[in-house]
Automatic annotation (TrEMBL):
This is CopG family transcriptional regulator. It comes from the Bacteria. Residues 1-73 are annotated as: Disordered. Residues 26-35 have a biased composition (Basic and acidic residues).
Length: 134
């Protein structure tokens, strides 16, 4: 898969794979490492973040993850025009703002912004207004 301009599965995942000890390591990979038992002290991860249950809900101030490996995936179908708009936004971010991000990152940021707006503004949020056709 292409790393530049991909769907969030290119360089982002390759970077996470190249840095297995990074903070963005998935719970699954950390658990597998514990289960393999790489020597004395291999069970020292018990009680670590990998064993804690995942928190539910989003804090309005929580930022999207950015460049890290993601455990979950969804498929979203968009029109050709929406895809072109997304690609145009990626090129504008790179050319005019110096931000080299992939389309997946843009989508995660947009989702985070819209969900934070929904949580703080409720019925007056842009999402509710657009879905109601106002």
């Amino acid at each position: 898969m292409p790393a530049q301009g991909g769907d969030g599965e290119g360089a982002e995942h390759a970077a996470a794979d190249a840095e297995p000890g990074s903070a963005g390591e998935s719970r699954t990979r950390g658990t597998e490492r514990s289960a393999r038992g790489s020597g004395p002290g291999a069970g020292a991860q018990e009680g670590s973040a990998a064993d804690r249950p995942r928190k539910r809900g989003r804090s309005p101030s929580r930022r999207p993850s950015g460049r890290e490996r993601h455990d979950e995936k969804i498929t979203v179908y968009v029109s050709a025009e929406e895809l072109m708009d997304l690609e145009h936004a990626r090129l504008v971010l790179r050319g005019e703002h110096g931000l080299a991000v992939d389309r997946g990152r843009i989508v995660r940021e947009a989702v985070a912004v819209v969900l934070a707006d929904l949580e703080t503004r409720g019925d007056a949020s842009i999402l509710v207004r657009r879905l109601r056709g106002r």
